[in-house]
UniProtKB/TrEMBL annotation, chains A, B, C, D:
Main location: membrane
Signal peptide boundaries: none
Domain Potassium channel: start-end pairs: 142-197
Protein topology in the membrane: Multi-pass membrane protein
Parts of the chain that traverse the membrane: 75-98, 110-130, 173-197
Name of the protein described by the UniProt record: PH-gated potassium channel KcsA
Keywords: Coiled coil, Ion channel, Ion transport, Membrane, Transmembrane, Transmembrane helix, Transport
Pfam families: Ion_trans_2
Cellular localisation: Membrane
Coiled coil: 198-252
Entry superkingdom: Bacteria
Gene Ontology biological process: monoatomic ion transmembrane transport
Length: 263, 263, 263, 263
């Protein structure tokens, strides 16, 4: 466990390094060529580290072919240069470490992933689209502010149309971001719905429990009034109480109560 | 309770005062400087009152550090000048007072909060964006009507693009409003879903209850036909009826009924 | 019942008449003044008929003040001239008549209302916005085709921005349509969610029932092997079977089965 | 089964052929007239094949009139030339074949249909809108890239407004795509909600099961301490254990446990 945690922290730091080396030349177009080369080198170094991590895990897996098949997305992120910026998603694994710490509910965890994932995906899309669009004729996204603004209007599906990509690569990034936006909307709605469905169910269960408790109390009073010492009567009392419980569980008045107790 | 209610009413009135003092100079750009100064003074006074309320509650809390940690959002609204207009959200606490009065269902309360919260957030955003955009070169939001129209198109994620913020501050307000819009969509959907899921479940439960009641009646008729005086038979009758109930609860025909009663 | 149905049909026919008299002058701006006057007269006649229907129902209600309070929306549609076109929503009551005929599920009824309500609201909004916008300087909605197209882009929250209202009245109609669009999205999502949640639950219940049936069969075989004639043993068999059922209901293996049957 | 599968594969291949013959003249406006005629011929041939398939199935149906009434949509796709491109939806039946192979969960199947259906509908809409818009005055959709980009912005309800249809046919296609987009959003949200509702319920059931198991263990220990040889006591033990189970099922502490065991 300790080793695994250390590995995650190292990967997270490397991803942050990658983020810096990826973002700097995009944000500062007039960057000194020497620094630009340094950034590229950093990206290559992080990429090699990620590749080595992947190779080590393949080597350590008992069934290698199956392991690779289960990590195809990760492999694609590693091999396809166009998906390069998405390597930053490794930062989401840091969230796993955070979530492990506290005893968070499933809904809380989904919320954290949705929030952090949205910010990360939006940031990556803004950087990539800026790289793709800057300098294109007729581009409306010409600065980082524009790019972030575009990413926000796209993810929330508002889409004013004051900023939009015009290059094929930019539009491809845009389609990916729209899909992410639809998924984001779905996740937000689902989290809200899950909370509300559960809260409504709990409120109703509370009411039902109160009613059932009252009914059970009345039942117990009647049973006590009947009174009995012999074991057969005790059994009868037990079974009748049980039946009242089951009836309460079904949420309808015990049908046999009145009829059978008068005997 | 009485004291707490009075406090909420006072805060609500102060917030309305703040709303007036905040909105007037924005809505009337050619306001007399004397009145403008009066509005600023009113804002400061309300701010001081809110700060005093916060300080008093800190002082009254048993565990102060923990109390502050639980009210960080409130503290941020108080301290950060840029979040100033959001202080109006204190008006939502008035809703709490209203909700306390009637015995409203959870779904009803969510609906009231969603509706009133949407109107309040939209109004605040319209005022702030108008303040930020008015006079900016290339601005499309130049009057209060434009600002409200923009807030509506943004919160519902329609986003025609005839009006949109162009300044950094206006865009920041816009991002906040988009997030509110996504949350609004989620809440509306969730409320509808909770209602529908519950209504469908109730409709099915009714049908199941009718079937079970019929089955139980048939069962009771059979049991009555068998007849019996001795306590063992009575116990048997009780247990069989119970078993029929549990079977009905599981929603499948009682498996042992036919076989065991023929004996 | 018969009378009520006849009333609904008459109101529906009147609403269709109103639709024609409302739409014709809007769709054909160069309408002969005589015809235009006839249309206005028809609208007034239908309005008087609706008012008479409302008055009759008030008179027939046992608690009049309370009845009016429960029909405030209807009263507003009748009294406020700006809500005039929404009187067409009376056509939705025809759906109630249709739904009454077949035994439709709740979800089906919601679907019918959502579909027909969307079409009706969209049509009304398109007609009203066309009336409000036509002739306004800078208007982008200048024909019925544009108006319908605008209504569709607004209700689905797509909002391209090629057509949008520019007059205050047109924008007010637009805000109403956006709210309807959000509610539409919520209803569609909720219907889909209710279907899916239920279908998933049924699929799981089926699997659980199969497992439980298998378990119960094994249990029955064991019980049969034990065999017994005396009533005490019969009771034991009954209670054990019942316990297996409850255990199956809870979805976990019966804990006492193995231990108690070996005795 | 075998025959049905072969039929589906043949229809799928024909649909792919149709896709090619439909798409080629649209994508390459300067196509040689001979090739264009070949494409048209291919479309007619596929159409005849689909018609023959439909006729054969009508002939094979036991109740023909009822069968046709149940396949009205299919008939419309066959007869109405404007719905021609939607014949490609027959490709979705290939998914059925794929889904039949693996034991996929309902949610998984919904996901596959939503994903593949979205891509297919988007592709068909992009091709049709391109055919309708190309050459129209003021058109913003002039190439296949534009058309796909437009389809994506429409289905996700982003709607930047940089590309939008201007012809009546193009707008009709657009409305259909918007409705598909709303349904897509609903399906995505519903799938997410179903997953989350179920996961939350499972998490809670697990916690409840743990508590119940602990309670049952304590109960069993108490029962064992009481000890008993005679059948009456055994019966009592059974019924008490059962009652503890039912109480655990209702999720509240067994009310009669403490009182009855002390006797």
């Amino acid at each position: 466990m300790r080793w695994e945690e250390r590995r995650e922290v190292v990967l997270g730091v490397l991803a942050l390094l990658f983020l810096g080396a990826y973002a700097w030349p995009i944000l500062d177009p007039g960057l000194d060529p020497g620094w630009e080369r340094a950034c590229r080198l950093t990206q290559v170094v992080v990429w090699v580290a990620f590749g080595a991590d992947f190779a080590l895990r393949v080597a350590a897996a008992p069934a290698r072919a199956r392991w690779v098949r289960g990590h195809l997305l990760e492999l694609a992120l590693l091999v396809l240069p166009v998906l390069r910026p998405l390597r930053l998603l490794v930062l989401l694994t840091l969230l796993r470490a955070i979530n492990r710490g506290g005893a968070v509910s499933l809904r809380g965890r989904v919320g954290v992933y949705v929030g952090a994932g949205s910010v990360l995906v939006g940031l990556v899309a803004a950087l990539s689209v800026l790289e793709a669009e800057r300098g294109a004729p007729g581009a409306t996204i010409t600065g980082f502010g524009d790019a972030v603004w575009w990413a926000c209007t796209t993810m929330t599906t508002v889409g004013y149309g004051d900023t939009y990509p015009v290059t094929p690569l930019g539009r491809t990034i845009g389609v990916g971001l729209m899909v992410a936006g639809v998924a984001l909307l779905g996740a937000v709605t689902a989290t809200a719905a899950a909370w509300l469905v559960q809260a409504v169910a709990e409120e109703e269960a509370e009411e039902a429990a109160e009613e059932a408790a009252q009914e059970a109390a009345e039942e117990a009073a009647q049973v006590a009034a009947v009174g009995a010492r012999d074991p057969g009567a005790e059994l009868l009392r037990e079974v009748r109480a049980l039946r009242a419980e089951v009836a309460a569980l079904r949420g309808r008045p015990d049908p046999g109560r009145d009829g059978n107790l008068q005997q």
